[in-house]
Amino acid sequence: MMKRMIFTAMLLHCVCAGIGADSLTGKVTDEAHRGVAYANVVLLALPDSVFVAGTVSDADGCFMLEASAPGEGLLRFSCLGYRSCTVPASGFTGEVTLCEESVRLQGVEVVAERPVHQLKDGALLTRVEGTALSQYHRINDMLAVLPGMTFTVSGEVEVFGLGTPVIYINNRKARADELQQLTPQDIRSVELITNPGARYDAEGKAVLKVYTLRRDDGHALLAEHVSEQGRRYSDYETLRYDYWNRKLHVSAYYQYADYRSVVNQPQSHELVLGDSLYLYRNPDQGDRRDTKQHTWYANADYELTARHVIGAKVEGTHTRDYTFRTGSLAYGWSHTPLAEKDIDNDYLNRTDVYHANLFHNADWSDRLSSALNLDFVYNRNRYRQATAETSSGEWLETESRGKGNLSIASGQLAFDYRPASGVQVGFGSDVSRVHTHNELQSTADNVAASLYDEDEVRAAAFADVSAEAGSFSFRAGVRYEYMQMKFRDRLDASGNLTHRFHNVYPSASVSYKRNGWSQTLSFSSRTTRPSFRQLSNAVYYSNEFMYQRGNPLLLPATAYKLEWSISHKPFYFSASYTYEKNHLSTCHEEEAGNRIISTFCNYRRIQYLKATLNIQKTFGIWHPSLTLGISQPFFEVMYRGEPLAYNSPNCTAALNQQFTFRKDYLLSVYYAFYSGGDLGSVSIRPYQMLNLELQKDFFEKRFSVSLKAYDLLHTMKFREEQREGNLRFTQTEDYQLWNFSVSLVFRFNQLKNTYRGKNSSASDMERM
After folding, report:
1. 18: number of CA atoms within 13 Å, CB side?
2. 517-533 pLDDT tens trace
3. Which distant-in-sequence residues (6+ apart) come within 8 Å of 155 by Cβ?
4. Do residues 535 and 553 touch, judged by C-beta distance below 8 A?
5. Is residue 437 classed as helix, strand or coil in its secondary structure?
6. How open is the CA angle 217-218-221, to the nearest 5 degrees?
7. Most CB atoms closer than 10 Å: which of 24, 297, 319, 571?
8. pLDDT, tens only, 607-657
9. Contact between 356 and 311 (Cβ < 8 Å)
10. Closest by alpha carbon to 198, among 440, 472, 504, 450?
11. Spatial distance between the Cα atoms of 457 and 480, rounded to a whole number of angstroms
């Protein structure tokens, strides 16, 4: 009842605020029917062309002009690089096309301040082009300063409280490594959607949409070298070549990376069985990791006509990952002194991934467009682990070998139809088939060999409609997904399983804009499906007392979320409530001999209350941005036969400061503090990070040098505790992220472009 009252009150607030609003909506496009961002739209009164009202189009070219009588007078559209256009307001059909100027400005710098962040139909839109954000060398450094984004303890970027977002590049689904192939200078704007609708895959709790800059004709070459010195030395080199003419785009990319790291992970386990307490302590466990990776792609797309584009892309990655882990395990039980053994592990993992994509984008008319994508992915993995355990002169050696093959075939077809001005209908479907074959053998007496296949078939369909009425915009949609998962044990047919899921995911939102204020109330439903690793029943050997294995009985989790967001000039605020059933998380089991099995389980439910506040403003050369966030969980597990609540909130505060000096100097200072708290069934202690970076551009920004200190205080350490079942587990994850780096970037005739196809298999590739 309380949830309904809150929803009704917030909806009435939006509705009442918009009474009496008059506005005109439309879209500014170029000759290829792509949206023109940041075009000026001005309403002039007749007969003397007196200024009445004005606005600027958003990243998609859409605009809303507020005035007392927007249907009277003249509408004038203008944008740098295009010829201005004036049309009668009374005859405006909702879309205007601007033609490119044949004369380009040389040596002209346009200086103005627009809001870097703004709310657009519930999405937080961040403008990158022409701001200090575009000067970063690395995409993760730019993303981390966006409101709601944070660094994880392993150095990755995620959405605060929501995890890793689903990525779209120019409205095409993409993988995380595809995003890393871009530079901030390629990007026009970024949208962060923390409550996605029916158009997006039901997996993933947040969506990050990246829009790249328009292309120019000609050649372009980008070369980059990065050297990092932390506990160990790492480096990577990148080459990217692009060629454009008016219809053809060809691109090629290659990167070689040599990552070397040291990781410290001291652990302790306390297992209570009846009146007995079993202790397992590994105070000095650590890894030395060496990863060598080759990544490449080649793509081409061609404009058959101004309304039809076809293309193809092939890409591949070869990774060799070697880890040497050392440690000592002290173990014992009630009233028995601890015994010790030394444990050495050698891990070698080789992975090859190949992906091919074909696409066709079409504008069948001014009202109807479509996008077709076909994908095939092949993954091959070979794994070897050798473990040597020494105790009181006794020697135990164990070897495990595994191999896996995975293939994905998928397709997606989506349509957009605009029956009237301000109204858009989207509908489409996608299908995929995933086949996995895995083998694992071990010399350990209590680790059985495994040989199994997994097959997954998924079919989905969606429909959504959006409409604008004055200062209001509305969106509603529904997504249906069917999934069948089969597990076949080739050694023991009694373990065969089949799961079928039929799910409907509705979503809806209402947005309101007036006098610089933007606010959105939205509802969505999402799912989190277990990864292939989590579903696998293969047993992985850690030491004599500890193993890891998956759980083929896992069910997908389903979440329902209500979110309210509001923005006005330098301020952005959002608040949300989430209810998730069948929550996926780690759990533990015990076997004979006091062995601890780490696996995955479904919990009945978890709930969250979350809020985020961002304030950003420019003061001359100083560009500060402050983000505050809080997440209040409500979660319960059973510990030693009694319920245990994990309700401690976790808070974050991040201050990013950029100083833009003359002669193309840029100084960046990033500081973030994380209060710790509860994440599911894990309690986290506080940690913080401080990054400093100085950049200098040369030769009209063709050559750029960056000097960076990452985690300057050496405080990115993840101290965690988990109490669940009969086990208390503590661990410190210290990835030794601190480093000093030099980055050199050379750009020859830098272009602004990206591949226009869409990866319909991106979600499955991430899960594998």
Report:
1. 23
2. 899 999 999 888 887 67
3. 716, 735, 737
4. no
5. strand
6. 125
7. 24
8. 999 999 999 888 989 999 999 999 999 999 999 999 999 999 999 999 999
9. no
10. 504
11. 14
Nearest to 331 by CA among 12, 594, 634, 590: 594
The alpha carbon of residue 271 and the mean position of all alpha carbons in its chain are separated, in whole angstroms, by 37
| pLDDT at residue 696, rounded to an integer | 93
Within 249-299, where are the H helices? none
Region of 171 please: left (phi>0), alpha (psi -120 to 50) or beta.
Answer: left
Distance from the Cα of residue 500 to its chain's centroid = 28
E-strand ranges in 470-570 read 472-489, 497-514, 517-528, 539-543, 546-549, 557-568
Residue 719: alpha-carbon gap to chain centroid: 24
Q: Hey, what are 566's tokens?
A: 């509001």
- Which residues, 6 or more positions from 709, have their beta carbon under 8 angstroms from its beta carbon? 691, 692, 693, 739, 740
Whose tokens are 């990243």? That residue is: 59
User: Which tokens go with 375?
Assistant: 């994908």
Q: Which domains does the chain have, with CATH numbers?
A: 23-97 (2.60.40.1120), 117-767 (2.40.170.20)
Instruction: Report the run of H or E that residue 249 belongs to, with start and end.
Output: strand 248-264
Residue 376 CA to residue 9 CA, distance in Å, equals 48
Please give the Cα distance from 90 to 763 (Å, whole number). 46
The first and second tokens of residue 393, run together, are 């002169």
- Please report how many Cα atoms fall inside a 13 Å half-sphere around the Cα of residue 172, on the Cβ side: 27
The model's pLDDT over 305-318, given as tens digits with 9 standing for 90+, comes to: 888 999 999 999 99
Start-to-end CA distance of the chain, whole Å, equals: 41
Is the predicted pLDDT of residue 84 greater than 60, yes or no? yes
Q: What tokens does 517 get? A: 């204020």
Residue with tokens 């091959």: 380
Backbone dihedral angles phi then psi of residue 141, each to the nearest 5 degrees: -65, -35
Q: For residue 434, what are the CA distances in angstroms to 173, 318, 567, 597?
A: 18, 21, 42, 28
